[in-house]
Amino acid sequence: MAKKPDKSLVVGLDIGTSKIVAIVGEIQPDGVVEVVGLGSYPSRGLRRGVVVDMASTEHAIQRAVEEAELMAGCEIHSVFGGISGNHIRSQNSDGTVAIKDKEVSESDVDRVLEAARAIPLSADQKILHVLPQEYVLDNQDGIRQPIGMAGVRLEAHVHVVTAALAATQNVGKCVSRCGLTVDELIITPLASSYSALSEDEKELGVCMIDIGAGTTDMAVFIDGAIRHTACIPIAGDQVTNDIAVGLRTPTQHAEDIKIKYACALEQLAGHDETIQVPSVGDRSSKRLARQTLAQWVEPRYRELYSLVMAELRRSGYENMVRSGLALTGGGAMMEGAVELAEEVFHMPVRLATPQYVTGLSNVVSNPVHATGVGLLIYGSQADGARSLSGSAQGESWLGRVQSWFRGEF
């Protein structure tokens, strides 16, 4: 069977606390990404976004990638990986340079960004992102793309994101042991913003809250640029643990109960609704009012939202988030999560689902996949988008070997 033509593919690898998700997208001529494959596998090797078991994480990555390869009919060689964790820090910085030829060139922009990234950095930290917010050209501010403009002095305002060197290296090792190359590591809130937020929201001002299993990530956008990012170490796993302890049920059953029946706002749970709760050991299961379950869940969500509110106030952008909040991630899907957020923050709140892709959009159009889809979009816009070998389903073993040789040599 003839080999399928090479396709311009990009792969996002969401390395989460509860699961590893690999999503394959094909970049269309118009730049839109068509999702052609998805693989997911439970993760047991991470805690709050940080690798604690290399072998388990490597196995989960391998299985997720293999499943995505099978669905997409391709061989994956490189990925854009998502990273999170309480070790991630961010700050805003400035840089200034003189323009060489009285007209801003690409090298001038590179130099001013290099100057802006010159921040005090400890030996155990590394810079992940230098994200331009705006440029100032001879005291004229608000410039977004200065190349080609006339001037003598260029200044850049940027958002610098750093991460623990060991944490990034461990993620990179897990991926490389699966025979893959990491094109780039992207922090989770930045990736999610590419799929979950609209340009209008970013312009008007929005705070995105990505509630995962191990961490809750937030990102603030004002005037179209990212202004603040943070990671809060309270998320879905803490809610599961509260349910397990409060209802005296095994953790796995607590997770199932959370997904099926939990409600973040007690008043939304019906008075006459009951649920079956398995007990620990060989004890018989018991019936429980759903409202009682909500009494365990609501305080944890209120605590989480209060921490996000405190971080938003600390950033100084609280009064500039004019379009409100966008909730995404698996934890945002719980009934009552949006209503409780509106009550706590006193501003509009919406549930943000991944957008801006085609193909398997009905499969990935779920807040759970906000980061994975965002990684695809980020990768499609990056210079490093790879052209990978797409081997047809059912292609002969000889064809696959030939494809491998073409990719290696």
TrEMBL record:
It is found in: Cell membrane. Cell division protein that is involved in the assembly of the Z ring. May serve as a membrane anchor for the Z ring. It holds the Pfam family SHS2_FTSA. It comes from the Bacteria. This is Cell division protein FtsA. The keyword Cell division applies. Keywords: Cell cycle, Cell division, Cell membrane, Membrane. InterPro entries: ATPase_NBD (IPR043129), Cell_div_FtsA (IPR020823), FtsA/MreB (IPR050696), SHS2_FtsA (IPR003494). Self-interacts. Interacts with FtsZ. Residues 10-196 form the SHS2 domain. One of its GO terms (cellular component) is cytoplasmic side of plasma membrane. GO terms for biological process: FtsZ-dependent cytokinesis. SUPFAM superfamilies: Actin-like ATPase domain (SSF53067). It is a peripheral membrane protein. It comes from Marinihelvus fidelis. Belongs to the FtsA/MreB family.
